[in-house]
């Protein structure tokens, strides 16, 4: 007798997008569909100057830790962003995460989102950085 296996919850087809970009006037426009979930990280502390001075490494984990240290409640806010993105992906909706320049806060949160996903779901998410090169660790 041959047993049938249940199909996986989600085939890793890279059909979902995690788009990372800025909100400045010269930022590239989003290419996502209108039903995409938009997560705005502009209200979080901006590590740009600290990174430019060389006192903070431009690594996602270090940036997340710095943001949390600078602002009471930022950890909970980041957790809500991660949960919102995860829920969107489960519902087959793409996600855009943005900050002012699309370089540090948005990329660090995108990294945290990817770290939180089930590996099978993460395999179906394609990351697109519109306005800045990817962070080293990203």
List strands and helices in order, with pairings:
Blueprint: E1 16-22, E2 37-40, H1 48-52, H2 60-70, H3 74-90, E3 95-99, H4 105-116, H5 119-122, E4 125-129
Parallel strand pairs: 1-3, 1-4, 2-3
Helix pairs in contact: 2-4, 3-4
Explain what the structure shows.
The protein is of the alpha/beta class. It has one domain (about 15-130). Helix content is about 35%, strand content about 15%. It is built from five helices and four strands. The protein has a four-stranded parallel β-sheet, covered by helices on one side. Helix 2 (about 60-70) crosses helix 4 (about 105-115) and helix 3 packs across helix 4. The radius of gyration is 16 Å and the shape is globular. Residues about 5-10 have low confidence and may be disordered.
Structural class by secondary-structure content? alpha/beta
Task: Extract low-pLDDT stretches.
Answer: 4-12
Span between termini: 47 Å
| Tally of structural domains | 1
Total helical segments = 5
Summarize the structure.
With 138 residues, this protein is α/β, with parallel strands linked by helices. The chain has helices at 48-52, 60-70, 74-90, 105-116, 119-122; strands at residues 16-22, 37-40, 95-99, 125-129. It has a four-stranded parallel beta sheet with strand order 2-3-1-4, covered by helices on one side.
Keywords, separated by commas or semicolons:
138 residues; alpha/beta; four-stranded parallel β-sheet; 5 helices; 4 strands; globular
